[in-house]
Amino acid sequence: MLYPQATTQRLAVDSPYHNSDWKYHLPISGLNEMDFNLKEKELIQEQIKSKQWIEEESLAFEVWLSGILK
């Protein structure tokens, strides 16, 4: 998972441009917990609890990747 620099830019799960929802009945929405570190799992849990998403399309990938590739 690429951890977003800005975690406050979120949309509700029922936003018009995001036709998806969390699987609330499954731990971390059914994602494989081994794929994420503690910080990432906490972000996912926070988003599930608040019924929000961080949409990748709204992030500046060039800035994001440049920080990772340094």
What do the pLDDT scores average to? 79
Give helix % range.
Answer: 25-40%
- Pattern of helices and strands: EHEH
The proportion of residues in beta strands is 5-15%
> Oligomeric form of this entry?
single chain
The biggest beta sheet reads: 2 strands, antiparallel
Termini separation comes to 17 Å
Number of strands: 2
Structural class: mainly alpha
**How many whole angstroms does the radius of gyration measure?**
13 Å
Distinct helical segment count = 2
- Strand arrangement within the widest β-sheet reads 1-2
Indicate the low-confidence ranges by residue numbers.
Answer: none
Description:
The chain is mainly α and 70 residues long. Helix content is 30%, strand content 6%. It has helices spanning 38-50, 61-68, and strands at 11-12, 52-53. A two-stranded antiparallel ribbon has the order 1-2. The longest helix has 13 residues, at 38-50. The two termini are 17 Å apart. The mean pLDDT is 79.
Could you name the key traits of this structure?
mainly alpha
